[in-house]
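The methods section describes the discrete structure representation at length, but only in general terms. The central task, working out the structure tokens from the amino acid sequence alone, is never made concrete. Nothing conveys this as quickly as seeing an actual entry. For illustration, here is how one protein appears when written out as sequence plus structure tokens:
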Amino acid sequence: MAHILGVRTEIDSVLSVLAPLGLAAAADPPSLLIDLDPSGPAYPSRRSLADLVSDGPTRAELTPGSTGMAVLRNGGIEWREAVESVHRLATSWSSITLRVGLDDTGLPWPVIPVVPLLPGFLTIDDGRPAVWQTSERGQVAPGPGPLLPPLGRRVVHQCLEARSIPRGRWVRGWRQVWELPWP
């Protein structure tokens, strides 16, 4: 059974695209990123979550390779319609990362907030554990949870060009997220 974690980023739309890729790249392979947000980005994938729910999973989706990372874009479906399909995929994959939109009430998996540390008073801290994304060196997390190093230009390009699995210090920072107990 797969280890499943959701991530949500509320105030940074670029980070909301990159954070799930970082978490999925840091997971035990084979790793699958599923976008549960119907208004999410057009991640590159042959099929979408909507296709999978409508037509059922293919043999390849249920028997992933032993290494690497796969991405399943949303395709315009609400997460509530896909819960059964995610459970079915969880029997085959080692790790599943869920990109969650703002509507995650009732989601049956842990959802981790990803909070960018912005300069000055702009950082939001509601006291809950989060993954804190630094924007410059030397920043300190204002609340509980892992602190990620600043995103480098190379990693951003790797994520957005989707030619290879992102690597580097930023992705290694995500590994600790898989090891923590999230509510």
